[in-house]
Give the backbone structure.
Amino acid sequence: MDRAAVLLAGLLRWSMVLLPAGRRGWAEAVWAEAAEVPAGRARLSWLVGGLWLISREAGMMRRIGFLTAGVVAGAAMAWWDWHPGSANPAMPVNRATIIGVMALLAVLPWATRPLLGPTADNRAARIVRVSGYLAVYVLLLVMVALSRFADSRFDHFQAFDQHNWEADMRSGAVVGAVLIVTVVGGYAAAILTLTARRTSIAPATLAVGATLGLTAAVIVYVLEPLGNPRHTNWLVSAGSGTVSLGVLVGALLAAGAFAGRRIAEVPGTDPEAKESARVGAGAIAGLCAGGAAALLLGIMTITTMLMFPRHVDLKWANPSPAVPHGTAFEVQMSVGDAAAKYQAGLLIGPLLGGVLGAIGGVAVMGAAKPRRRAEPPLVPKP
């Protein structure tokens, strides 16, 4: 029983870091007074009661529930993407990647809390954190569905040079695993960082950046729901890509300009410090807009491709027009290739957003300069 008390006391002391700094005093008092409680069941009850109070104060039960839900969702996705009986040499790497990414998503909120603190105490941060993290899970679900559809063409594939093909598939799977872990883990870490209390991101910057990014994604999706222009006429096909690019670039610049203008309107700040703050705020707003746009656009467009795969632009596996086309292999290949640019957009979107957002913040540097007071007219002396 003494060993159990020592273990609970150590767990109680470690759990103090989960509390806000202003609430750790009473937890330290509970831990210190445990030594004064008689050994045996009384001390165990005291320590268990202290742990229960800390768990309620720190919201641990809610986070344990989220962790459990994340683990269950990860197990379900790994089972769904297992491809039983597949002869694809990349499949073991793909399975390990899904399991590793789901474990990362489940553990990351716990691992970053001591460094970043809890969620910022404002509505924008809470909405962005919850909806953004859920969107990352949805993105992973869409990627698993894409793998089940597009990669199933390799489950029993036989190449002319089987040895080289298997080597290429394995190396490609390793590169893909690194990219998936980087992108998904990066999005999750960015969401947790931008919405944490210790980073002190302005709520308006988060809200406007995310809103502009989501709006741009919806507009681009309406123009190209299947990843290719609508084939009504050549003018629409040529113009939709230009409009989509203009909408995305405009949203990123506008997010940075909004954040920069808010900094510019703050009175009584050193001009050089204000100038640097505009660039930083603009970059953060652009990053939020670019990430939100890439995330939502990838989810919606790839999902639509999977729902209507035969409406995606077909790519021929064999360039000869004499062989039949539109086979299941070609449809799966076409969907996989068309989805690749949206997967690349997940990496490029936040980076481009940060750059264009900073440019937008710089662009308003001279727009909000304080006006000079009109000097009173000189009155000639008599």
Summary: The radius of gyration is 27 Å. The mean pLDDT is 81.
